[in-house]
Amino acid sequence: MSVNHGVRAGESPTSLSTILQMGNTAVVVGTAPVNMATSPKVNTPVICYTEKEAIEAFGYSDDWKKYTLCEAIDAFFRLFKTGPVVMINVLDPAIHKTSVAAASATFVDGIAKLEDTGVLLDTLKITGKELGTDYTAAFNEDGTVNLVAITIADGAQTVDFDKLDPSAVDDDDIIGGVDPVSFKNEGFALIPNVFTKFNRVPNIGLAPGWSHIPAVAQSLVSSMKNINEVFNGIALTDIEAKTVDSYSKVPAWKNDNSYIHENQYNFWPRASLGDKIYHISTLVAASMYVIDQKNKEMPYESPSNKPLMTTGICLEDGTEVELNLGQANYLNDNGVATSINFNNGWRLWGNRTGCYPSNRDIKDNFINNKRMFIWDNNNFILTYWLDVDKPATPKLMDKIVDSYNDYYNGLVTKQAILGGRIEFNQNQNPTTSLMDGKYYFKRYMAPVGVAELIESDLEYDTEYLKTLFGGGN
Predict the structure, then answer these.
(1) Strands in 108-174 per DSSP E
(2) Which pLDDT belongs to residue 470?
(3) Strand 111-114, strand 177-178: pairing
(4) Assigned domain for 380 exists
(5) pLDDT tens digit sequence for 288-304
(6) Same domain, 305 and 199
(7) Are residues 153 and 129 in the same domain?
């Protein structure tokens, strides 16, 4: 029964919106030893919060040339200890495989070792013997297989099996598209599925071991634009480091192969840690996570001059590369970042995106500014998406303006930006547009800059000579 005599109280919605701040979601596309996975995934985005989750879905091998996703597993979860990261494996055991017939397996003390890697256990057969009754099969850490006899005597046996063939994966598999038979997305075409599946915006894209191929890089750059028709992200790409064996060759190769986009961050050569060779793109993706997490998920700080957790740089084949500061700066001046050991260990060196030096727009050619603009646009979309199709009242317009201006003021206080504002102006919203249901808000923002060059000069001041004479008297 309604109370109609006395005092009543209720609640009203808060007049200011809570702004949604997007965290990092890197998407890594490549190949994996899924024959070793307990729950293998092919052309399916998998969000991995831990190394265990990644290995369950993709397996693991130290052979990163064959299995490129394993490099990302190592970099994110072992080296930088960060996540989560979304991974997409395109190596399909049903397609990318080869058959091995009449191989020999010799049992000694009840054990025979198959030196092949990539073996598909469900295809393995010993002639005249039955798995589980006469023998068992299990993987070793290096991906080889041990056969353990149950009823089999020591000696040679004939074995047949299929095994993965990573060499059968090509550019088209990574780039992907829509399968003409299943009509399912594959490769880079799965990037939009990340948001619809996990409600996370894929804002960092990479394909270590593949992005040095121009066709793959161009597709990755395009795939990180207009994601789900509204979001954007950064493509991390590696410059070829086999034939491009000198820093002096990098700018021409970069321009000739169109590694020149504002949402593209380029790297040359490779990075090494012991006998491991990393693509710098992989290390930078993980480094961005660590830096942004320190800054409460705000990407206003450049990854340049931050540790890469490595001990050197090299070409694709491991040949050591030596770069002095001037040579590294030459790469930076041409829109390519590298790594140098100039002070306090090996660090990333370079703030400029691929569009530099031809594009001098500060919002495009500094990596931190570009990421901040992408971040802010994505945040705006996420925050006000649920206001779409609501009544277009003055209250709604005021809520958007007041809440976002309040948000910008908070970013200034946190020193994430120098200033920002949002406006809803009559002269930018003609009557015809309003009648058509279209409302335009203009935002202005100045991210914190990068102290890329700090200069000073030193002069001899003769006045200090007076101190020789009793305080200058």
Answers:
(1) 111-114, 125-126, 135-139, 145-149, 155-164
(2) 76
(3) unpaired
(4) no
(5) 999 999 999 999 999 99
(6) yes
(7) yes
